[in-house]
Amino acid sequence: MQGLVPVPGPWAGGAPVVANGSVFSLKEAEELRERTGVDGIMSARGLLRNPALFAGHEVTPLECIKRYAELAMSYGTTTFIFHHHLMFMMEGIMSSAEKCTFNVLSSIPAILEHLEQGYGIVPSFGEQHGRPLP
C-alpha cells in the first residue's frame, strides 16, 4: 500500500474505481480509500482470512466460523475446501501447535469434532441451515 497516490477520477470515464490488494484490516481499507479517493475496496485474501473484516473485527469471530460451517455443509462443500477455508479463517485464533494439529485433520467429522472440542463451535444442521451432516 505504500507509494499509492490519489488518481484523478476523469480517466475512469465516470465508472467507479475500486482498489484491490493487501488489505487485511478495516483500518487499512479506510486509509487506502482516504489516500487514493477510490469508490470501493476489495480484499480477497483479507476476507478469506477474516470474513468479518469490513465489520471491524480483527480476527474472525467464532460465530462467523460456525455460520461458515453451516453454509459449507448445506452446500456440500468438499473436505479440502472446507478445511482450506477454515485454516485461513482461524489463522488469527490458533497457535502454531493448534495449526499443526488442525492441518492433519482429513475428514469433515474430524474437523467438526475439533471445532467443538477446541472452540465450542457446534454448527446447526437442521432444516433451517440445509441438509444434515453427511
Automatic annotation (TrEMBL):
Q: What class of enzyme is it?
A: oxidoreductase
Gene from which the chain derives: DUS4_1
What is the source species? Answer: Spiromyces aspiralis
For this UniProt record, the keywords arranged alphabetically read as follows: Oxidoreductase
Q: What is the lineage of its organism?
A: Eukaryota, Fungi, Fungi incertae sedis, Zoopagomycota, Kickxellomycotina
Entry keyword annotation includes Oxidoreductase: yes
Q: What is this protein called?
A: tRNA dihydrouridine synthase
Query: EC?
Result: 1.3.1.90
